[in-house]
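Notebook, bench 3.
Goal today: get a predicted structure for KNL1 protein from Regulus satrapa so we can plan the truncation constructs. The sequence was checked against the plasmid map this morning, with no discrepancies at the termini. Length recorded as 243 residues. Pasting the sequence as submitted so the record is complete.
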Amino acid sequence: RELSELDAEEERDLAEMEKLKETERASLEILQKYDFTEWELMEWSEQQAVFNFLYDSVTLTVVFGPPVDGEFFAARPSRSIISLDFESFLDEEQAPPSSCLVQQLIFQFIESRGSWQEKCPTLQYLPQALFDMSLVVNRCKILGEELEFLERWGTKFDLLETDIKDTEVKLLFSSSVAFAKFELALVLSHDYPSAVLPFRVQTRIGNIGEKEIAAVLSRVPVGHHYLQRIVFSIHQNLLKGPR
């Protein structure tokens, strides 16, 4: 008799595990209906879900509370969410400055949203939260690629040096053809690339200053590869010949 009780218990455990797996599968399907994802699901259990972003450098842990009456998610009663915690795993000592900048902008966005738990009180709100986070991660990731591109190929566009400190990027341009050398400092935020970048100019040699740069930047529309296009435009319009 004891044996059959044990068997029944084992069967119940197996059925419960199967149910959990089914919920995870159904939940994943719902989450992936948002066809734009920058996250990877690391864990989904009764207690919590864990998501990784940006090459595992940012982790989101979602802790579940009790079921919510009358609300369903993945064909089962929806769960309340007790907390959403973001954590950085970037080794800032080892990481290149561009990665540190990207990480800073992502956490700037996370903090700008205030309480994530208030905006995401139950599982039904989780896909939207992951989507919002994915958008920012994607834009910041592209920014990181742009900075790497400029550091590698900048000299082709008379860009001598790219210096990154916190959320500021300093670009040092020098052109013997235009007899000009100046530094352009741009302040970046998590809105990049959809907002115009505040800037300042320090002229070292020649007559290219704030006014000339402002005229060029006013013709560069915000959007995809904004930073690269700013550099191309300065090179094209100011540095290719005598002024």
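The longest helix spans residues 2-33. The beta strands are 39-44, 48-53, 58-73, 76-88, 159-165, 168-175, 180-187, 199-205.
Flagging this for group meeting.
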